[in-house]
Amino acid sequence: MATPAVPPAHVRLILTPLDDSFHLDVPAAQIHNNCKKPLKYLRFLGFIIMSVLGSVNHSRDPDDEVDYDAALIDCGTYYYESPLPAAVNPQILRDFQSSCTSSISTLLSCLLKEFEKQVELRDKRCIFSGAKFVCNAGHIIDFHVGDECIENIVDARLKDEIRVNAVDAIQNGLTMNPNIHRLWSMNLLAVIKTPNAVLSMEDIPQRARPLMPLTKDSKYPTDCRFTLQTITDTIPQAEVTGLLGGYNVDAAFP
């Protein structure tokens, strides 16, 4: 089956070395909203998905690396190339996506309630909006994967930083208001931490925000940022502003 053409106003990032079947088609406008260096952002996406640090190239030629200060090519195709085999098997990702539609047992529901209680006690309020009431705890690594899969998902270079060994560990949760949690559960939002192996804090646009955190008992970290982002154009811009307060919303913590 032939690979479909790149949709208008998107760019394609091909993630597998031998064929074009496993790829991302990302709205170019969203990349510009999320990062001042769009090609560096593509490299970050490849790193996060494949769990091995590589480069973004114009072709499969390993010497054809892009200039990360250059502009995106409209409807362009880029290749994520790495010197090591990918740490993630694309078929596992496809199987995981299918498994997310499975039902939740009564036992799992009880575990989720305890997880939500502990995360909300820690954060006290939505870490993005400051809302205190009717908040929900969301998983960072989806609970459907199960504890046994975390070792395969988290890259070895990130283990000291992430410190998550169970999907229902409190470190794997964030407290959000209902609007953010709904979009999060639909896989329309993600949180990017900077600095990371590819991006600096300065690469992420700074949204206009109060000089002080939204609440007196929370603060913005000074040595890092946890920024709420989307790479889909499913959410209209008006809703991004109305529901989230704008693009690149930084988290503040107790």
Q: Indicate the radius of gyration in whole angstroms.
A: 19 Å
Strand content: 5-15%
The helix content, as a percent range, equals 25-40%
Main sheet, how many strands, which sense, barrel? 4 strands, mixed
What is the residue-mean pLDDT, rounded to a whole number?
A: 82
| Terminal CA distance | 52 Å
How many helices? Answer: 8
Overall shape:
globular
- What series of H and E elements makes up the topology? EEHHEEHHEHHEHEEHE
Estimated structural class: alpha+beta
Are there runs of 5+ residues with pLDDT below 50, and where? 100-105
Number of strands: 9
**Strands of the largest sheet, in order across it?**
2-1-4-3
InterPro entries: HNH_nuc
Organism: Roridomyces roridus
Domain HNH nuclease: 126-191
Pfam family, one: HNH_2
Structure description:
It is a single chain. The chain starts with 9 loop residues before the first strand and ends with a strand. Strand 1 (about 10-15) and strand 2 form a beta hairpin. The chain is globular and about 50 Å long. The strands form 3 sheets. It has a 4-stranded mixed beta sheet with strand order 2-1-4-3. A 3-stranded antiparallel beta sheet has the order 7-8-9, with no helix packed on it. The protein has helices spanning about 30-35, 40-50, 90-100, 105-125, 150-155, 160, 180-185, 235-245; strands spanning about 10-15, 25, 55, 75-80, 135-140, 175, 190-195, 225-230, 250. By secondary structure, the chain is an alpha+beta fold. The protein has 8 helices and 9 strands. This is HNH nuclease domain-containing protein.
